[in-house]
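Table S5 (text form). Sequence records supplied for joint modeling of the two-component complex.
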Amino acid sequence: MNDYRDLTTREAFGRSIAELGNSNPDIVVLDADLSRSTMTKYFAQAHPDRFIECGLTEQNMIGIAAGLASCGKIPFASTFAVFASSRCFDQVRMSIAQPKANVKIVATHGGITVGEDGSSHQAIEDIGMYCLLPNFRVIVPADSVETVEVIKAAAMTHGPFYIRLGRSKSPVVYGGACDFQLGKASMLREGKDATIIANGIMVSKAMDAATSLSTCGIDCRVINMSTVKPVDKETILDAARETGAIVTAEEHLLHGGLGSIVAQLLASECPTPLESLGINDVYCKSGKPEDLLEIQGLTASGIYDSVKKVMARKRSK
Amino acid sequence: MDENKTADLEAMARKLRRHVINMIYTAGSGHPGGSLSAADIVTALYFKVMRHDPHNPHWEDRDRFILSKGHAAPILYAALGECGYFPIEWFTTLRKTGSCLQGHTDSNLTPGVDASAGSLGQGLSIGIGMALAARLNKKTYHTFVLLGDGECEEGQVWEAALTAPNLKINNLTAIVDYNGIQLDGFTRDIMDLEPFIAKWNAFKWDIIEIDGHDMGQIISALTKAKTAQSKLTVIIAHTVKGKGVSFMENNVDFHGKAPNKAETEQALKELA
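The corresponding structure-token record, covering 589 residues in total, follows.
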């Protein structure tokens, strides 16, 4: 998979779904006038008869995907995350989630790292919205290599998926092979003092923070929780029991996403000091992706500070 | 039943209407008006026009039917039960805890229900997906979508109407049960759809306008739409809300209200 390492997650998606289309004739791709941005253009070029251009009719696209799925096709419907969530939520609920339609929604341009386009295009509610829906699996890959594995798993697994990708290039997390397993978190770094649970672009920042922390003697575990739903409870509870302090980091609102899910689990099964990094109930503005992340504290140093804070709480318990 | 005889189909439609009244009375809630207005259309589809097999609800080659106006579920259940998709004893369980007959259609639970519905405006898009799948899978089945007129106020209906000719869909028929009444009142007062035919025309659909209670006209329109290979057809069926029960006809109150015992007895007498 070395070919994919230097690509954006959306580029990796576009190329891998076109490739999967070669071996699986049931795969159909739908897009809503964004194929040159979501990178479904590769599939459109390779399999024009199985590419369905829906124009700017996202709600309609979801229904078409549901109809295709009910007749045995494996539709991948793609648009920007902000439209894939808020624009067609009722259609997703009624036509896909409730009937358990075998539709894969691959949303690109997730989070605030869309950057300059501003708040209208920054999906910060999407993961929470999709996690609310029964029957959905929700995945936020850490980099392009993992994206390819996630797309393969989604194609092979029956049922609704929401896969959230970014616009900008994600730093490489998986230099070598990525053994993605649906519903299973991967421990990228062992540690006994505290645990950082992250997904998406925050995973590489978590790794950077853990490296910095190790220089001051803090042994920090790092977990890539790419599958947000169904969440890997065992890995979270093991981390809580073994390290006694948890930090979550995600490019999403604090409410409804990874942080909320971890908090709910810990509160009910293993109360543990927890600090959560995310966007705190605000819409962000136009700007360079890295600047926007900095403003929200979604940086390696933000994670570093949160680990220190949560460890202080652990000690004072 | 001799399927070719219009009179037999009309008798079946009356029977389905009686099932609807009984079901909704027993349930204590439901939508009689829009179920009764669609009764003749649904009868024609299930007992004459559609290719389907009640013993094999998932038959890949079956014609598809989507009741996009999902609140008219009782008329679909009546047809499916009479066809033999499930025992007619299920009718008395409508809307009750543990029943396979939900308040609005649920494709997970009811044999023969091709799409879940209830949130309006979504069925035509699903129908396009099914029609595309037929093309991709090299199948000859036809997809029918029944819409309400009030439902046509939903924007997604027009997204789908715009999309179908763009995707060169030619194995799909939309039917509008134009009964002129929605929950809050007469459609012309709430959100006038006219000129309705001009709208579909502008969206490049072929149009057949019929009396939605004339069995001969219904069958002829459905058959024509199903066999026309090059066109995308919408059948505008002029209907009467609550058709067949005098005090429900054109009565806004019976959009979503169950009849009481006396009303039920009166309705069944009229539908005998």
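Note: Chain B has ten helices and seven strands.
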